[in-house]
Design a protein that fits this description.
The structure is a single chain. With 477 residues, this protein is mainly alpha-helical. Helices cover 77% and strands 0% of the residues. The chain has helices at residues 2-37, 48-51, 61-84, 90-101, 106-109, 111-117, 123-143, 147-152, 154-183, 190-202, 206-215, 222-250, 253-282, 290-310, 314-324, 330-358, 368-393, 398-408, 412-424, 430-445, 447-454, 468-474. The radius of gyration is 22 Å and the shape is globular.
């Protein structure tokens, strides 16, 4: 009897010990990588004139912004529909639309047309629209985050999710040892470069993943539920880590601690003070009155402003404010219904166009394509491998674990947001930015064929994930 009573306790102790060893091991490995990486040298930064292109103000900025939006929306929809017919998420076509209209394709075939649709002078104005779109998009992602689902499956999913962060983070940091002397400059500290590479390798595109699961009819299976929960926990953790990385990058070493403390304090305030207040306030509105919507929209702008003031990106504040609003409240549902089309159809294309302007595939030449392939390989091994091993250790069968690893390797739009932040901070160069954009596209496009290869399909019921193994383990927790 005593043995039966103590077995769950021993299991919990073993689980906590393994989890702590994973996290501490990842930290120790990064510190070792950092110690060696600080001895590396990179090329001298280019002259200021070479960094900043001389751009004259746009003669009619509104005209060019509207023209760019029309072009990227129409082309994105056409490419998205074409790709969706072969099982790819439409967001891939929308990303490709920005790249096609930019210097990578149209800029080479018809430079005059490309310069007219997306002139360099319109970039600052397009960026403003893009940033607003990303802020509202991340707010919607936060609104759709189901914290209850995360808590219900906290043991296995959080462990699996964090394993899918630790493994690619360590591998990305190790890859930085090879890339730093070749693709960075001496004005970028190795620590910032390695931290950013680790985070960029760790991202999972939660919204794109949800769309893929729905399209394949597996969103309500056990595998779909676990994948969505892991991706949600992954997003929360990755965005918190990104906030710290941005703070370290933007601040001096002595100020980085202040930024980190302020960020942690802000997160605590949002969940301990703001969330209960928001719950009480929005409970007074039934979702049809505009007052609740005004409060929510003002709140997201203030939250974005606060994190920007702290020293981390505004999108983190927007995501965090969305996460503290109950996802099943009337205000959350009506805001999602009313904002989703405006954000995804009108505002996000500005982000894709802006990203396309910054992506120059022609910058990659010769042996650099091997580096691009290496980045894709390391990103896939880290994300897939970390998720697969952790899922197997928590009791999942091999097909379910492989499917989970494939799904967690989906990066999509979330990766582009992170990469643009890195380029804005000049932690990564335009060449590395282009390589990472290609990595995000490849890993996203590979998801559907990989699921088909594994036989995970709505039309084959016997190939759905069998939760028996996990249920036996979960019952012990």
């Amino acid at each position: 009897m005593d043995d039966e009573l103590t077995q769950p306790t021993r299991f919990r102790v073993s689980f906590v010990a393994a989890y702590a060893a994973m996290v501490l091991g990842g930290v120790a490995l990064f510190l070792l990588i950092r110690t060696y990486g600080e001895t590396l040298t990179a090329a001298a930064p280019p002259l200021a004139g070479a960094i900043e292109r001389a751009v004259s103000p746009a003669p009619n900025a509104v005209l060019h912004v509207l023209m760019a939006l029309v072009a990227v929306i129409v082309l994105g929809r056409l490419l998205g529909a074409a790709l969706q017919s072969v099982g790819q998420p439409p967001v891939v076509g929308e990303v490709l639309a920005g790249i096609v209209l930019g210097p990578s394709l149209l800029g080479r075939i018809a430079p005059e047309v490309s310069a007219y649709i997306l002139p360099p002078s319109v970039a600052p104005f397009l960026n403003v629209v893009a940033q607003l779109g990303i802020i509202l998009y991340m707010f919607l992602v936060g609104l759709e985050l189901n914290a209850d689902l995360v808590r219900r499956r906290a043991h296995a999913t959080v462990a699996t999710s964090h394993a899918s962060i630790v493994a690619p983070f360590v591998l990305g940091s190790a890859l930085a040892l090879f890339l730093y002397p070749r693709l960075s400059t001496s004005d970028v500290p190795f620590t910032s470069f390695a931290l950013f590479m680790g985070i960029a390798m760790s991202i999972t595109a939660f919204p794109v993943l949800a769309r893929i699961l729905t399209d394949r009819g597996i969103s309500k299976t056990e595998l779909g539920a676990v994948a969505l929960t892991c991706a949600a926990a992954d997003d929360v953790t990755a965005w918190c880590l990104l906030a710290m990385v941005v703070g370290v990058t933007q601040a001096r070493i002595e100020d980085a601690v202040t930024v980190s403390v302020l960020t942690l304090g802000y997160i605590a305030i949002m969940f301990l003070a703001v969330r209960p207040t928001i719950v009480r306030v929005i409970s007074r509105f039934d979702g049809r009155r505009p007052t609740g919507h005004v409060i929510a929209l003002v709140g997201v702008l203030l939250s974005a402003l606060a994190t920007e003031w702290i020293g981390v990106h505004a999108v983190f504040g927007a995501f965090l404010f969305g996460a503290v609003i109950p996802h099943n409240s009337a205000v959350a549902r009506t805001l999602t219904d009313r904002l989703e089309d405006v954000v995804t159809i009108l505002l996000l294309p500005a982000f894709f166009a802006f990203t396309g302007m910054r992506t120059e595939i022609g910058l990659i030449s010769g042996s650099q394509w091997l580096l691009c392939g290496l980045i894709i390989l390391v990103a896939t091994i880290g994300k897939f491998g970390g998720s697969f091993v952790a899922a197997r250790l928590t009791g999942m069968d091999w097909r379910g674990a492989a499917g989970l690893g494939v799904l967690m390797n989906t990066r999509g739009l979330m990766e582009l947001i992170v990469l643009n932040i890195g380029l804005d901070l000049r932690v990564i160069s335009p060449v590395l930015f282009t390589m990472m954009v290609l990595m995000a596209l490849v890993t996203t496009v590979a998801t559907t064929p990989a699921l088909q290869f594994l036989g995970i399909d709505r039309g084959r019921m016997f190939l759905r994930y069998n939760p028996a193994a996990v249920s036996r383990s979960a019952s012990k927790w």
